[in-house]
Design goal:
The complex is a heterodimer. By secondary structure, chain A is mostly helical. Helix content of chain A is 86%, strand content 0%. In chain A, α3 packs antiparallel against α6. The longest helix of chain A has 35 residues. The radius of gyration of chain A is 19 Å and the shape is elongated. The N and C termini of chain A lie far apart (44 Å). Chain B is of the alpha+beta class. Chain B contains 15 helices and 17 strands. Chain B has a five-stranded antiparallel beta sheet, with helices on both faces. In chain B, α9 runs antiparallel to α10, α10 packs parallel to α15 and α11 packs parallel to α12. The longest helix of chain B has 55 residues. The two termini of chain B are 97 Å apart. Chains A and B meet through α1 and α4 of A and loops of B.
């Protein structure tokens, strides 16, 4: 009985990491497509999203199967619940990556717009947040998860600044308004990916400490 | 095996043999001795009955007095433990060693008497022996010469003394048997220990060896089988130790080889858990953790394509290869992957090994070469097409007005100039690349090519209302170089600066000697270059903006030439630029070596 549960949990872990890896790859490619104007990468992201959705459904089925078959308790139960939530977050992140790839495609059709200097930094921060949140999940590292929570503030700040910059750019150059909106939309999607990373980090903290840290910050 | 079973087993088997032997001997001896005691007892009674017969014969035949016999018997009875009786032919007691014969009943019907009488004449010596009530009776008929029975003599004795003798004997026997068994026990204990102890010792040594204590050696020194076994065990341990050491060395060698390979190597077992991951692989895949062995592959590196490849190889056991772009770390890497199954002795797939070959640089070079060929063809074809078009028009249109013809010829001339400069640049590049640079280098003053170049390009700068500034040191800046190439460098940098700086800007050329190097800097206040182009502007035909460059008359080879010349002079070229605020190109070329300890500066 326990042996079966262990084996199923192992498989679940592998599957959720597969989804995580695919999402991580999609985000890397989508942001590269955006920064380096590479249409091929954007196309790969748009193609890959269906595969992410399929895997997401598989993970959910696996979770439900384990819940029904083994009726786990304590840490095992928390693990399944975490897996369900992380799975959901990851799927959402995949959609956001697809959105960014779409914006990158739109920007490619337009004249290159000047990107504020913070934007590449923001991309780097989000990339490392994605990587760190998954690493925290793999190694159930609470400290790393808390660092992900801390990094979110930087991303929020840059995004607000991007908003002002794009507003100014649009006002200055009304014919470039389309490009400005697309870049701002990409920035918004990045900011939401960062939010999803903090969700994953919170799930990791819940998994390890059993404490729900959501809605506790900044109060 | 449970500990110490051999010793009790040996002990008990030897002890039970001892006990059994003691038991058999004791019982047998008891039988024989008891029989002998009985025989002696009876023989004594017989002897006495024969004696009594001789004694009683006279009296019974009437030759002697009864009283004499009675007296004799009484005396005999008091001296021995035997009871003597003489019975007359009629059955009445004639004499008795213990009681007065007159008071005794008739003995005619006593079984021993009846038996003695019945023995008959032929059996004169026949004795009757009857056991009754713990007393043994022996009787004999006393016969006259003619065979008639004169009477019966009888001896009897209580068997209690016999029983006492037998039981005393048995006690002795039991005591002896106990002593024998105790001695056997001690002996068995000693013998069993002698066998069990070496076995236990050998077992503990073998266990220690199995646990990996390679210093464990059996310490038995004897000529018997145990000694031989312990020597065999020791030599086996020696051989095993050598083999283990050999394997350890082999393993260290292998891991050193695999570890220092440029190719990444990842080995996994049948459950996709990492068996080995060398340094190159962890570098390529941006694996942060040092301790990855035994962990699932997906956990270690999170690259779905590689995991899918491994799963496929484990499933179908076929080699696969593919190329993959890995977006980890700062730059994406293009990696060529080869996955092959690992098989056990029976040919069943029980793992996989993935070899990663970083082909990023190779692919970049390939792309550069492809671009170069495409670019050269394109660059050559564009002016040719224009020339051909205009020439064709002029040939067809015989009535072309003179002014149009002149304009056309002017255009053809410009395109020819472009072709010529392109071919010249290509030749310069080819020459720089193929020349054994240092052979043709001669000492020269770097200020000369700078001055020449500035002089030549001053009109162009003047035309755009640019401020052209030369900052040259007073002393000559001597380098080993080729005048023509170095002038080309200054020409190209200065030409670019003038070309890409809007009107009323400024261009500054600075030459300085610091330490062992000469530094040439060309700064402008032009349009600048965006960061993502900076890495590539020294590539041939790389243009930030193709249309603009061609419009301004560039060949796309200028900076490539600058870079090659700098390299062939043992120097370097770098660029700093920000879009909108201008660019700065810095060329560093080593100063000429000193003659007689003095630099050729003054």
């Amino acid at each position: 009985m326990t042996k079966h549960l262990l084996r199923d949990l192992e498989r679940l872990k592998k599957q959720i990491l597969l989804v995580g890896s695919m999402v991580e790859g999609a985000i890397m490619k989508a942001t590269a497509a955006l920064l380096e104007r590479r249409p091929q990468l954007a196309a790969e992201v748009l193609e890959g999203d269906d595969a992410i959705d399929t895997r997401e459904v598989m993970v959910e089925e696996e979770c439900l199967k384990i819940l029904a078959l083994h009726q786990p308790v304590a840490i095992d139960l928390r693990y399944i619940v975490t897996a369900l939530k992380v799975n959901n977050d990851l799927e959402r992140m995949g959609d956001l990556a697809r959105n960014i790839a779409g914006r990158a495609n739109d920007l490619l059709k337009l004249e290159p717009i000047h990107m504020p200097n913070e934007f590449p930094t923001m991309v780097d921060t989000v990339r490392s947040m994605v990587r760190d949140s998954l690493d925290a999940l793999v190694s159930t590292d609470v400290d790393l998860a808390r660092r992900v929570l801390a990094a979110d503030d930087t991303v929020d700040r840059v995004h607000r600044h991007m908003f002002q910059e794009m507003q100014a750019a649009a006002r200055e150059n009304p014919d470039r308004i389309e490009a400005a909106i697309n870049l701002l939309s990409a920035s918004r999607n990045l900011e939401r990916i960062a939010d999803q990373c903090t969700n994953i980090a919170e799930d990791v903290i819940f998994l390890v400490e059993g404490e729900i840290v959501r809605h506790q910050r900044k109060r | 095996m449970r500990k110490g079973r051999l010793f009790p087993r040996l002990l008990w088997s030897m002890l039970s043999v001892g006990i059994l032997t003691a038991l058999v001997v004791t019982v047998r001896y008891d039988r024989v001795f008891t029989g002998k005691l009985h025989d002696a007892f009876e023989r004594e009674l017989h002897d006495q009955v024969l004696m009594l017969e001789a004694l009683a014969h006279e009296t019974l035949s009437g030759a002697a007095e009864r009283a004499d016999l009675q007296a004799r018997l009484a005396q005999l009875g008091s001296e021995t433990t035997t009871h003597y009786t003489v019975v007359g032919a009629d059955g009445w007691v004639v004499a008795d060693s213990e009681r007065d014969p007159t008071g005794l009943e008739n003995h005619a019907q006593r079984p021993e008497v009846v038996a003695a009488r019945a023995a008959g004449a032929e059996e004169r010596d026949r004795l009757s022996l009857v056991d009754a009530l713990g007393v043994t009776y022996v009787a004999k008929a006393v016969r006259a010469a003619d065979g008639t029975v004169l009477g019966v003599v009888r001896t009897s004795r209580s068997t209690r003394s016999l029983d006492n003798g037998i039981s005393a004997n048995r006690r002795q026997l039991a005591y002896a048997a106990l002593v024998a068994v105790a001695a056997a026990g001690l002996l068995a204990w000693w013998l069993a220990r002698g066998v069990a102890r070496p076995v236990a010792h050998l077992q503990s040594i073998a266990d220690a060896m199995a646990r990996g204590e390679d210093r464990a050696r059996a310490a038995l020194v004897s000529d018997d089988e145990f000694g031989a076994l312990s020597r065999a065990l020791n030599s086996m341990a020696d051989r095993l130790g050598e083999r283990v050491e050999e394997m350890r060395r082999e393993r260290a060698k292998m891991s050193a080889i695999v570890g220092s390979m440029v190719e990444g190597v990842v080995a996994v077992d049948g459950h996709e858990h990492v068996l080995h991951l060398n340094a190159a692989a962890s570098d390529m895949l941006a694996v942060a953790d040092a301790d990855v062995v035994g962990r699932p592959l997906i956990e270690v590196m999170r690259i779905v394509d590689i995991c899918d490849m491994v799963t496929a190889v484990l499933g179908n056991g076929e080699k696969t290869s593919r190329e993959l772009t890995i977006h980890k770390g700062a730059d994406p890497r293009i990696v060529q992957l080869e996955a092959a199954p690992l098989r056990d002795r029976d040919g069943i797939v029980n793992g996989a090994v993935v070899v990663l070959h970083d082909v990023t640089d190779l692919r970049r070079l390939e792309a550069m070469r492809r671009d170069f060929v495409a670019n050269v063809s394109h660059e050559l074809k564009t002016p040719l097409t224009a020339i051909k078009g205009m020439v064709d028009t002029m040939v067809d249109d015989t009535t072309m007005p003179a002014d149009v013809r002149v304009r056309f010829l002017g255009k053809i001339q410009r395109q020819c100039d472009r072709l010529a400069s392109l071919v010249t640049d290509l030749l310069v590049l080819a020459r720089i690349e193929s020349s054994k640079a240092s052979e043709e280098l001669l000492p020269l003053d770097l200020r000369d090519p700078v001055r020449e170049s500035a002089h030549q390009l001053a009109p162009a700068a003047h035309e755009k209302h640019l401020r052209l500034e030369l900052v040259l040191p007073d002393a000559p800046v001597m380098v080993n170089g080729e005048q023509e190439s170095l002038r080309q460098v200054v020409d190209n940098l200065l030409g670019n600066a003038i070309r890409y700086t809007p009107e009323h800007g400024s261009v500054t050329v600075t030459l300085a000697a610091r330490g062992h190097d000469a530094f040439l800097a060309v700064r402008d206040t032009g349009i600048g270059i965006e960061a993502q182009h900076l890495d590539r502007i020294f590539e041939r035909f790389y243009r930030v903006d193709k249309a603009r460059s061609r419009e301004l008359g560039g060949t796309g080879l200028g900076l490539a030439i600058v870079k090659h010349v700098a390299l062939s002079h043992g120097g370097t070229v770098t660029v700093q630029s920000r879009p909108g605020s201008g660019s700065a190109f810095n060329v560093r070329i080593p100063l000429a070596p000193v003659q007689g300890g003095q630099r050729l500066v003054s």
